[in-house]
Amino acid sequence: MAGNSEPLSPRAKLAVTAGKAAAAVSKAAGRGSGSVIGGKVALRLDPDLLSRLAHHLDVILVSATNGKTTTTRLIAEALRAAGPVVSNALGANMPAGITSALAGGSDARYGVIEVDEKYLAGVARDTEPKAIALLNLSRDQLDRAAETRMLAEKWREGLAGTKATVIANADDPLIVWAASSSPNVVWVAAGQEWKDDAWSCPACGGVLQRPGDDWVCGECGFRRPVPSWALNGEYVLDPHGAAWPIHLQLPGRANKANAATSAAVAATFGVPPQVALERMYQVQAVAGRYDVVTFQERELRLLLAKNPAGWLETFSLIDPPPTPVILSVNARGADGTDTSWLWDVDYTRLAGHPICVIGDRKLDLAVRLEVAGLDFRVCADADEAVRISPPGRIEVIANYTAFQDLRRRVGN
Ligand SMILES: [Zn+2]
After folding, report:
1. pTM
2. With 25 labelled, which of 142, 145, 388, 402 sits at a CA distance of 20 to 30 A?
3. What spacing in Å lies between the alpha carbon of 149 and ligand 1's midpoint?
């Protein structure tokens, strides 16, 4: 509904104003950007505000266990070639944060919105998106395979009959299961490094056979759909078979996959892959992730890894040994308070790197590394870990609140 200039009702306007006032008060009180509290106040005054705000926009939703913040940024950059964009770029991805972000973009044509996995079906109902990008689903923190399967089922029910074009990863069986209730799906071969949550068939529970890049259920025949877009090394292949080079400042295979999906999304709005991919080069860091900062005369690259699949993707993008690695793990509310997920991560991938461990749960991590047979040192804090590392690049990998602690200490 781009270009629809039907004005907001007085009640909706009041809700937006009250939300902004609450956000300003919260910000003045030192509680972050205030966007979430602002959104909560606004939604309390006008529960339909999100759908009213979205009504004026072509909405694109992005959800996944990993990579949704980055992909939202990449899609937003690409679509700016076609018109003004509003986005929840700071990652406030539940309804209050989304409402607050959209309230700030009254002149936008496109709304590019990251959505927490648990809210996708509801936000899709409220915002009537034109496109929905689904990247991957895997266990997060304490979630286990059964919960991840239930989430896929919720998506499948919520997206059945959607009018949106769903752009979905053909290489993730749970994503395929979730998306295949939608009438209009564009499949992207975006790859899947973490397969531990994808050995059983989402449709029938049978064992998936995985010859090469393909996958098929031996019991019911549920199988990988034929993709029309693909990530192929350093290139994106479009539906006509043309190969477009990916140039990103962001590191790693996972971000190339995010770029491939983003190019497919942009194409559904008429932005050609070449234009979309050129614009994606602008994205340097996303909410501090991948940022390289100078601290104690070393170059620290800050990497966020929140769950086992995220750790695995991160190990694959760091510089090879002997580049030192600092690992930081907390177990506060936003991280999940149980650290048993550490046992799902294959830390032997770090063999050969000098390793320091820090964070609230450095001893849990130390036990895990000891069992993995790795050499490491336990340090008091980031300062000590950096001090005992040789000069040059250091890769610093942290989970959620540990990452925030780190940015406060070493960030610009
Ligand atoms: Zn099956």
Report:
1. 0.87
2. 402
3. 13
